[in-house]
């Protein structure tokens, strides 16, 4: 097993490419996933600005050509040099899982493959293949703990010759931690604001820092289900600021509506209450979200859930086909469904 613990990663990265050619980086902290993938890419020594040496793919690029990933990893560069293949936004898609299964069974490829994935559940396709494989390195990326956040604050402020008061540190810690890139950007913004002062005070944090403490699609999904338009706008703004792909919100919302449609069908077929279905089909749902899902099940009918599921599928397809309009498509779709949720409560 080549599972690299989060606290071991920095040391591992120094010699990673002497040991492995295939890397899977996953977790709920999308900023940390991107940061670690970028570090591994730099350590390869392969020129990232050279389009013949580095190929960056989105998982949507594999939809029309499922075998492309394996072909690219096994093909030589234009001049016979090694290549870096960098895949983003993976989430147990069949094309990725199938390619990884082939790579896990064979000898290490000549080229390097880095896969950035979302929050993969234990036992899911990519983890099931990568974790026991001896030729694949896999590492999780979870939100920073207090120790890591303090180190991040001290390092970034020290670059501008700044210290921070205990009260300001306490307030700042409450606003960071959900996403590494978002946290880093917020601290850098604070350092720029306070440059030349020597000390960061509590009022400086209040004046300049936003909330990067929790960037999760669940927050937006829950706002859609409750019909809370203000909360949805706030959640989408946080997601955009953290550079988390808004596609993940559409995908999470679709999965939630599909699950609710299945649960609502069970309620109708067996003439049972939402609370009873939650004890069976809803066992995997986090306990904090269960009351919200139960209330939504009581309001929504199967036909309506199916209709909104189709709306989300259409939006996902449009966002992949017209990526320049992805933000607009997602915003309009989620707002429309949230409005339907609000009407359900009247």
Beta strand count: 7
Helix count? 16
- Level of helix content? 55-70%
Instruction: Give the overall average pLDDT.
Output: 87
Strand content: 5-15%
Uncertain segments:
none
N-to-C terminal Cα separation, in Å? 54 Å
Decide which structural class fits the backbone. Answer: alpha/beta
Please provide the ordered H/E string of secondary-structure elements.
HEHEHEHEHEHEHHEHHHHHHHH
Largest sheet: 5 strands, parallel
Q: For the CA atoms, what is the radius of gyration?
A: 22 Å
Instruction: Give the overall silhouette.
Output: globular
> How are strands sequenced across the largest beta sheet?
2-3-4-1-5
Tell me what you see in this structure:
- This protein has helices spanning 9-19, 30-43, 68-74, 94-105, 125-130, 146-158, 166-175, 180-194, 202-208, 217-226, 229-241, 247-270, 274-280, 290-299, 302-321, 326-344; strands at residues 22-26, 54-58, 84-90, 112-117, 136-140, 163-164, 199-200.
- The strands form two sheets. The protein has a five-stranded parallel sheet with strand order 2-3-4-1-5, with helices on both faces. It has a two-stranded parallel sheet with strand order 6-7.
- It is built from 16 helices and seven strands.
- β3, α4 and β4 (112-117) form a beta-alpha-beta unit.
- It starts with 8 loop residues before the first helix and ends with a helix.
- By secondary structure, the protein is of the alpha/beta class.
